[in-house]
Specification:
single chain; about 500 residues; alpha/beta; Aldehyde Dehydrogenase, Chain A, domain 1; Aldehyde Dehydrogenase, Chain A, domain 2; 2 domains; 23 strands; about 40% helix; binds NADPH dihydro-nicotinamide-adenine-dinucleotide phosphate
Length: about 500
């Protein structure tokens, strides 16, 4: 482990612990390929302890007035803000993403999410129904119990807080299983939450292999709810496992977002937004613009401005504050993205930007922002999730054709529509099968809005008012207020 700077353990019941099996693995910094951290490899025994701690913490935490719980969210938000630079650096070193994205998006977005849900305690109310003159029915909201949070590697902090914040305010306690590649940031966050006064056992973190620690967590009988973000394939496994214990499940899965630019669009604005939409976070983004659909009348003009802007993206050391585009997450993922590019070319697509590692960078898992044209709707590139900096440009002639192309995938997570015609915008928004759309802008998922996919992109919503329902059960209490309930049996 020579050269390793960071150690990431388990965080259970308010304390750092070594894994029971004593096993650690090494994680490299994807931008330097040098060892960055040694990470605990949690197993089923550790999961059992973490769930036990969360269960013991549940009665007291869930009985706290919601307004008191909300104060903890604000304290954690403040602690994150105080530690922004330090945590952003850890996040950048484990993900390869530029530091400004770590600071502004991962940590800034987490703070916003905590602040939004700190206000949600005022909305944990049920309804009073006067069913008839002799009966009042009340609905009350109760926390579901211990929640399991399974997190992918692309936004390890932000996606954790999309789950942590509503779970905390709802009164749930939790166990988080981060991705193997990105466990350090959330371990640091757990320590910060504890320092901010969060009671022991409310938030526990167990890094480890998905098929071992993740599987043990989804199987554990002490878990009531699973909130999973990750690939569609693993999401299906999680759902099957959860069925055994009839656990509540929400799944945020893969995507293959279209962005449709009509001839009457603000082309300059669309170029800028699609640039960010495609290459932000190195394209490792489930809502990334992967299929850029351009009306044939603006195709050439759009493309030349777009390629010019791509050539000026600052690629390099993610720790340099000037860097705008960093490394992809790992060597394996680098190979997977490159294989997709090769496959696309073998199926007739043409690389018109990037397509390889940037020439000036010798070390690290870098792939230049890549654009392909002549991509056939229905081909591998147009249908499968690549999850890297690869955009397919596809021309269209009519609105009907654009909608058909947009819907020619199994995913239905996000998409964009660019037009100055409001009627067309609304018509196309209705026709596109996806859960989260932008019109005349692209990107930015704000905590106030419900986010989630259709089809193979998942089940349920995170964020917004609906996001908190993931962590609540609705109980109906029927109260008879009349003189007599009457007789059913005559005798
Ligand atoms: P994976 O599905 O491979 O992994 C996600 C998480 O599940 C990881 O923590 C992983 O652990 C864990 N896991 C793996 N196997 C199991 C199992 N059998 N039981 C329980 N947990 C398991 O996704 P990636 O981490 O590769 O992330 C990329 C994917 O996430 C993409 O498909 C992307 O679209 C999707 N995503 C969706 C978002 C959305 O909001 N819809 C947002 C961001 C990403 P380990 O790391 O140890 O394998």
């Amino acid at each position: 482990m020579a050269g390793t700077e960071t150690k990431c353990d388990l965080f259970i019941d308010g304390e750092e612990r070594a894994p029971k099996n004593g096993s650690y693995y090494e994680r490299e910094n994807p931008a330097t390929e040098k060892p960055f951290a040694k990470i605990a490899e949690g197993g089923p025994e550790d999961i059992d302890e973490a769930v036990g701690a969360a269960r013991r913490a549940f009665p007291k935490w869930s009985r706290l007035p919601a307004g008191e719980r909300a104060k903890y969210l604000l304290r954690i938000a403040q602690a994150l803000s105080d530690n922004r630079d330090r945590i952003a650096l850890v996040n950048t070193r484990e993900t390869g993403k530029p530091r400004r994205e770590s600071a502004m998006v991962e940590i800034g977005g987490s703070i916003r999410t905590l602040e939004y849900y700190s206000g949600a305690h005022t909305r944990l109310n049920g309804e009073t129904l006067q069913v008839n003159e002799n009966q009042i029915s009340l609905t009350v909201k109760e926390p579901v119990g211990v929640a399991a949070h399974i997190i992918p590697w692309n936004f390890p902090l932000l996606l954790s807080f999309w789950k942590i914040a509503p779970a905390l305010v709802a009164g749930c306690t939790m166990v988080i299983k981060p991705a193997e590649l990105t466990s350090c940031g959330i371990f640091e966050v757990a320590k910060i939450c504890s320092e901010a006064g969060l009671p022991d056992g409310v938030l526990n973190v167990v890094p480890g292999e998905g098929a071992v620690a993740g599987q043990a967590l989804t199987e554990h009988p002490g878990v009531a709810k699973i909130a999973f973000t990750g690939s569609t394939e693993v999401g299906k496994t999680v759902m099957r496992t959860a069925a055994g214990g009839m656990k509540r499940v929400s799944l945020e899965l893969g995507g293959k977002a279209p962005c449709i630019v009509f001839a009457d669009a603000d082309v300059e604005g669309a170029v800028e937004a699609c640039l960010r939409g495609g290459f932000f976070n190195q394209g490792e983004n489930c809502t990334a613009v992967t299929r850029l659909m351009l009306h044939e009348d603006i195709y050439d003009g759009f493309l030349s401005a777009y390629l010019d802007r791509i050539s000026r993206i600052r690629i390099g050391d993610p720790e340099d504050p000037e860097t705008e585009f960093g490394a992809v997450i790992s060597k394996e993922h680098y190979k997977s993205v490159m294989n997709y590019i090769e496959k696309g070319v073998s199926e007739g697509a043409r690389v018109i930007a990037g397509g390889d590692r940037p020439r000036e960078i010798a070390k690290g898992h870098y792939i230049a922002p890549t654009v392909l044209e002549d991509v056939r709707s229905g081909s591998t590139l147009a249908r499968e999730e690549i999850f890297g900096p690869v955009v397919c440009v596809m021309p269209f002639k009519s609105e009907e054709e654009a909608v058909a192309m947009a819907n020619d995938v199994e995913y239905g997570l996000a998409g964009g529509i660019w037009t100055r015609d409001i009627n067309r915008a609304l018509r196309v928004a209705k026709a596109v099968k996806a859960g989260y759309l932008w019109v005349n802008t692209y990107g930015g998922i704000i905590p106030e809005t419900p986010y989630g996919g259709f089809g193979q992109s998942g089940i349920g919503k995170e964020l917004g008012a609906e996001g908190i329902d993931n962590y609540l059960e609705t109980k109906c209490v029927n109260i008879f207020t009349g003189e007599s309930t009457g007789k059913w049996y005559r005798g």
